[in-house]
Amino acid sequence: MQEADLDKSQEAVDVEIQGPDAVPVRGLQATIDTPGVPLQDNDVERLFGAIFDQADRYRKRFEPKWLKGYTQYNGTVDESGKLPWQSRVHIPKPK
């Protein structure tokens, strides 16, 4: 492959100019036919924060079950009720 072919393969189709000064002309709700609404930095920050909060709330429903499985698998169990003669060997139990 010649060097001229490499330059053509890296042409940007969603920007008016190439290089570090290029600005995308696509934005929020963009489709093939419409460029959408360009996002500002504070819009991106708000959008990311909302998605992160939603994912965090969703994750919290499952966290107790995950932690229970994690501690059981890794042998972090409460042995305070065991007598000195009782075994402290941990064997993970499959569910």
Low-confidence stretches: none
Approximate helicity band: 40-55%
Average pLDDT metric: 76
Report the order of strands and helices.
Answer: HH
How many helices does DSSP assign?
Answer: 2
* Alpha-carbon Rg, integer: 27 Å
Task: Please describe the topology of this protein.
Blueprint: H1 3-9, H2 41-73
Q: How would you characterize the overall build of this protein?
A:
This protein has two domains: 1-38, no CATH class; 39-75 and 86-95, no CATH class. Helix content is 42%, strand content 0%. It contains two helices and no strands. The chain has helices at 3-9, 41-73. The mean pLDDT is 76.
Question: How would you summarize what this structure contains?
Answer:
Helices cover 42% and strands 0% of the residues.
Summary keywords:
95 residues; mainly alpha; 2 domains
